[in-house]
What does this fold into?
Amino acid sequence: MRILLLGSGGREHALAWKLNQSVWTNPLYIAPGNPGTALCGKNVPLDIKDFEAIGKFCYLESIDMIVVGPEEPLANGLYDYFKADKELQKIYFVGPSGKGAQLEASKSFAKAFMQRHKIPTAAYKEFIIEEYEKGVEYLQQHTLPIVIKADGLAAGKGVAICQNHVEAIAEFELMLYHNKFGEASKKVVVEEYLDGIEFSIFVLTDGENYVILPEAKDYKRVGVGDKGMNTGGMGAVSPLPFITPGLMYKVEERIIKPTINGLRKEKIDYTGFIYFGLINVKGEPYVIEYNCRLGDPEAQVVLPRLENDIVGLFIAATQKELDKVKIRIDPRAAATVVAVSRGYPTGYQTGYEITGLNEKYGKQTLIFHAGTREEEGKILTNGGRVLCVTSYGENLKEAVLSSLEVLEYINYEGIYYRDDIGYEFI
Ligand code: AMP
Ligand code: GLY
It folds into this structure.
């Protein structure tokens, strides 16, 4: 199969690595990719916002399957663009329709969807600018802490957890009145705070059936001990010791099945991943958020633990045959530690040479590129999150220690990573 993967981060390097192992893949293109994905296939310089260019490439290169890594092209309707074209509609498309991607792209859509299908989530109310006064009144009598969310996509930054009413009203005003997140905060969701342990469950669905992939937890805060600012993710681990069969049963019955059935009942086209961002409140699972894609850096531990041929899974998904598939999971633990640029997530410099990438590390370690670029044969830093070092281990401790050991040998100006990924489980 001639496959095109869209995206350029650590998640896409992990996807490219997995796609490249498939017996079906020949060849693999990645657009735009990074120096890591170039080791798994051929990078092509396409802009993932440019649907016409993507369509033209697929047509000219007789692409059989397209796999979309990030949410943006999905939320902007890439699936619908392909389905509206007589030739492009024949291509196996892994990713939901624009309507399906609203589960991630609009918190208001996702909350209303969960209410319609009785899926457990935090109680909420939403406000637009015309309801500003009403919103302030609502906040004044709300129990603390208060969670305030921009409705739209805000690169993971659109959520504020406010410890007092003054802070909450200020944030509400910034989002709604001063357009803190532009279009994304034209509507604001105010939510009850849920106290518990977060975890992520990934499902691949064909719109009717689904398979559950290995679970993961990511570490969003920049500092050791979960302190400091939120980031795209500083590390991830899988499996999670606290996920018992009883908890998983509740997740499946109360959350996964009603979500898939809800999509089907509402005739929303959905072939692809659903990322359930969940929280375990005293043994009861609630949905914090949906994403319409794999997580980053969660994919860097989920995909290494998935034993199935991923193209086989994608074919089954596009043929609505996921009920015939059985997921096989590597029993080993996996951990990924993300090396970032000093100053991330606020300001940082790029363009520093990365050394130590070509040492002979053991088979237990995989190095996934995130923000890197190649110049004259050298690999340079090119973003906030630079590399994800994933290792397998008999347990999480062994996996994390292997990644940290490898990171001792990797260097660039301003390298920083958390050395406590998975700390609660070690
Ligand atoms: P989201 O973008 O919706 O995933 O929110 C970002 C982060 O904010 C989540 O990963 C949680 O840590 C936190 N969060 C969001 N909603 C809630 C909530 N209702 N209660 C507690 N924490 C929340
Ligand atoms: N790691 C969180 C996300 O991918 O949204």
